[in-house]
């Protein structure tokens, strides 16, 4: 093989692999178009939320109520903030809870509209396949994240079930 052939092969491989790699912008846009394939829904985030992260887990509310929660988290600069259910130096701005129909009935009978117990601050965003999807907005966030609180309702309004 001569030098020209080697250079041609290297350039061809470089151009091919460069065309396959996603740019930072493409990766950001992908992240801002959140999709949860497990539960089959999506939401759109504004670019100001580019640093958000997601945490999900089962939550045992009482002996008769266990639900699944997906938390949407942003980092905070506040030194005094003590996060609950979030990594250090971060805060949950909203959650999507997934209830089975039976769990939702139990929640409504046991907790809905009562001053004691497990309280949700939000609304139902969808019902599908016997499940209730509820957006719960945080009541308390660090001061540097106040500006993002208003975005949470806008983000949740983009909630859609995927086909």
SSE diagram, text form:
Blueprint: H1 3-20, H2 24-32, E1 33-36, E2 41-44, E3 53-62, E4 65-75, E5 90-100, H3 101-110, E6 122-128, E7 131-137, H4 146-156, E8 160-161
Antiparallel strand pairs: 1-2, 2-8, 3-4, 4-5, 5-7, 6-7
Main attributes of the structure:
163 residues, alpha+beta, 4 helices, 8 strands, 34% strand, elongated
Could you state the oligomeric state of the chains shown?
A: single chain
Question: What order do the helices and strands follow?
Answer: HHEEEEEHEEHE
- Estimate what percentage of residues fall within beta strands: 25-35%
Could you give a short account of the major beta sheet? 5 strands, antiparallel
Level of helix content? Answer: 25-40%
Biggest β-sheet: strands ordered side by side in the sheet: 3-4-5-7-6
Number of domains: 1
What's the number of extended β-strand segments? 8
Mean pLDDT: 87
Radius of gyration (CA) equals 21 Å
Q: Low-confidence stretches at least 5 residues in length (pLDDT < 50)?
A: none
Task: Label the structural class.
Answer: alpha+beta
Distance between the termini: 52 Å
Give the number of helices: 4
C-alpha geometry: elongated
Task: Describe it.
This protein has 163 residues and is an alpha+beta fold. The chain has one domain (24-161). The chain is built from four helices and eight strands. It has a five-stranded antiparallel β-sheet. Strand 6 and strand 7 form a beta hairpin. The longest helix is centred in the first third of the chain and has 18 residues, at 3-20. The model has no long low-confidence stretch (mean pLDDT 87).
């Amino acid at each position: 093989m001569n030098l020209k052939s080697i250079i041609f092969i290297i350039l061809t491989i470089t151009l091919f692999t460069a065309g396959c790699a996603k740019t930072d912008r493409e990766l950001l846009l992908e992240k801002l178009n959140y999709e949860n394939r497990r539960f089959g829904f999506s939401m759109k985030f504004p670019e100001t939320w580019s640093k958000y992260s997601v945490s999900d887990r089962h939550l045992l509310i009482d002996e008769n109520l266990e639900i699944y929660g997906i938390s949407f988290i942003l980092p905070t600069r506040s030194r005094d903030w003590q996060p609950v259910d979030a990594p250090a130096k971060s805060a949950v701005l909203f959650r999507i809870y997934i209830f089975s129909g039976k769990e939702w009935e139990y929640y409504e009978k046991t907790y809905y509209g009562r001053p004691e117990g497990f309280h949700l601050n939000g609304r139902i965003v969808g019902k599908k396949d016997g499940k209730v999807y509820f957006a719960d907005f945080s009541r308390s966030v660090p001061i540097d994240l106040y500006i993002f609180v208003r975005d949470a309702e806008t983000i949740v309004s983009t909630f859609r079930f995927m086909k």
